[in-house]
Amino acid sequence: xxxxxxxxxxxxxxxxxxxxxxxxxxxxxxxxxxxxxxxxxxxxxxxxxxxxxxxxxxxxxxxxxxxxxxxxxxxxxxxxxxxxxxxxxxxxxxxxxxxxxxxxxxxxxxxxxxxxxxxxxxxxxxxxxxxxxxxxxxxxxxxxxxxxxxxxxxxxxxxxxxxxxxxxxxxxxxxxxxxxxxxxxxxxxxxxxxxxxxxxxxxxxxxxxxxxx
Length: 213
Known about the structure:
This protein is 53% helix and 16% strand. With 213 residues, the chain is α/β, with parallel strands linked by helices. It has a six-stranded parallel beta sheet with strand order 1-6-5-4-2-3, with helices on both faces. Helix 7 links the parallel strand 5 and strand 6. It is globular and about 60 Å long.
């Protein structure tokens, strides 16, 4: 299994003496340094898998906690509607953190570590795609989702920060940004999602033609 990584970008020391413009410039540079020189091989594989899912009706499941959950919901919307509004059929994308009734039921009855894996056990099928967003790569519910995805026969991707955690070894294709900064790690999740959305938009005619033939 190959692993796609960026060079390590360290978070700067907390310097409270400077003004906001200097801090903002430093943040922008860290984000740029994280993305510049990155090998996009695994992301390109994800793009191919998502295009195939779009053409064949396979499902794509997103999951994450906190800000990563927000990114999961945001991107599921992009792939359902933003892609689908012109071709008439978007990707069958699901954000596992989106349904608060399901989340609170599962967390209360089964434990928070099972909130994603149980949903996958009900809805996912072999060759569906699982995309996990995690800064640390060590959240138990993310690890359980990856384990359940493997049991089902899904293709799993994990977009990770910091050291990549345990998820780095569990995902079929880890996409690892070695950045010691949770906000930059979450930014990278959205960057990848928006790259995929724009790439797939250029392929919409292939999908339309395939569905009409």
